[in-house]
Design a protein that fits this description.
Elements: H1 3-20, H2 22-34, E1 45-49, E2 60-83, E3 89-110, E4 119-128, E5 133-141
Antiparallel strand pairs: 1-2, 2-3, 2-4, 4-5
């Protein structure tokens, strides 16, 4: 047997295999394309809302609404209020077992004596069951 004859025989075997291979490969591709894709793990969604037309005074209140969503469910929600240079620091922790969506309304009390123009940050942080965290914040000014 010469070198050319063996190479032709090998090419013939490869061609025979390639002529049969597309059928099983196409069937596998077809089956895989029909399966429902798994949802990707993503951070939860959170949105904090303070009415843009609401004016914050000292003394007074800051009504806040916090919306949280995660398709796998979330563990807890922390809502905090902080001011720069003024004695307004508070937070609340909410636990939501077996919940995928929640809206929480919080009314913060603003003590007397906070100077005009002081910026107050209302922040919210939510943890989902996988461990991802999402945050949102809103800044209001004492008027």
């Amino acid at each position: 047997m010469t070198a050319g004859t063996g190479a032709r025989a090998h090419r013939g075997t490869v061609r025979a295999w390639l002529s049969r291979a597309p059928v099983p490969l196409c069937l596998c591709a077809l089956l895989l394309s029909c399966t429902d894709p798994r949802a990707r793990v993503t951070p939860p969604t959170i949105r904090i809302t303070v009415s843009p037309i609401f004016q914050v005074h000292s003394p007074g209140t800051i009504p806040t609404s916090v919306y949280a969503y995660d398709f796998q469910g979330f563990d807890s929600l922390d809502v905090a209020v902080r001011s720069s240079g003024a004695p307004l620091n508070a937070d609340s922790l909410f636990l939501y077992p077996d919940t995928t969506e929640a809206t929480t309304d919080v009314v913060w009390s603003v003590p007397a004596g906070i100077p005009l123009g002081t910026k107050i940050t209302v922040a919210a942080k939510v943890w989902n069951l996988v461990g991802f965290v999402a945050t949102d914040s809103s800044v209001v000014t004492i008027q």
